[in-house]
């Protein structure tokens, strides 16, 4: 049988473990992939059009589930080659010469933990020797894949939810067992 003081210490230890699980920042093994660097860089103004886009992430990429989409200011998809993945880096060749204007790079990748990561960022081409790109405020030419890649996934990882639920359940069971034991001891 546990003494009342040992039971209280055990309960405090379980609760402290639960608090630590949700308060302490996730380490690298739990962290989801994210964009480390890009060329062209976010919000960059380039004096000439890039011939390729390179995105480097924190973790290795799955080539099967890597998508990079380039759109112009009118949200029309710009032709690019298929992504070439090497470890944590993915590169696409731009199939056309980009006229001056603002462009958006949208990406969707699957990280090592299987979690999809997506985002987007703009850059501008401002080559003094090239005409400006046509602009439009409508998104009639936007592709569904570009829109999907631009919208970030904000769902929590299933493993964190399952682990947190299991620990919370364990805390409830431990608390009820301790209260039962202390209730039996009372005259």
Automatic annotation (TrEMBL):
Q: Which UniProt keywords apply?
A: Copper, Membrane, Metal-binding, Signal, Transmembrane, Transmembrane helix
Subcellular location(s) per record = Cell envelope
Which Gene Ontology BP terms does the record give? copper ion transport; response to copper ion
**Residue span, CopC domain:** 32-125
Q: Which segments show compositional bias classed as Low complexity? A: 134-150
Q: Where exactly are the transmembrane stretches of this chain?
A: 157-179
In terms of Pfam families, this protein maps to: CopC
Listed under GO cellular component are:
cell envelope; periplasmic space; plasma membrane
Q: Where is this region: Disordered?
A: 134-153
Q: Which GO terms describe its molecular function?
A: copper ion binding
Q: InterPro entries per the record?
A: CopC/D (IPR032694), CopC_dom (IPR007348), Cu-Rt/internalin_Ig-like (IPR014755), Ig_E-set (IPR014756)
User: Which PANTHER family would you find in this protein's record?
Assistant: INNER MEMBRANE PROTEIN YEBZ
Q: What is the name of the protein in this document?
A: Copper resistance protein CopC
């Amino acid at each position: 049988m546990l003494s009342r003081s040992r039971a209280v210490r055990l309960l405090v230890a379980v609760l402290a473990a639960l608090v630590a699980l949700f308060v302490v920042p996730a380490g690298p093994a739990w962290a989801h992939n994210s964009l480390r660097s890009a060329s062209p860089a976010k919000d960059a103004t380039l004096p000439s059009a890039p011939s390729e886009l390179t995105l480097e992430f924190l973790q290795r990429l799955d080539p099967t589930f890597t998508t990079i989409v380039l759109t112009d200011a009118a949200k029309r998809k710009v032709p690019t080659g298929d992504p070439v993945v090497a470890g944590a880096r993915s590169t696409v060749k731009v199939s056309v010469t980009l006229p001056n204007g603002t462009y958006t790079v949208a990406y969707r990748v699957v990280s090592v933990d299987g979690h999809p990561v997506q985002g987007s960022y703009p850059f501008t081409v401002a080559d003094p020797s090239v005409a400006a790109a046509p602009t439009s405020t409508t998104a009639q030419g936007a592709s569904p894949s570009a829109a999907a890649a631009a919208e970030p996934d904000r769902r929590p990882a299933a493993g964190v939810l399952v682990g947190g639920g299991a620990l919370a359940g364990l805390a409830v069971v431990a608390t009820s067992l301790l209260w039962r034991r202390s209730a039996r001891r009372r005259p």
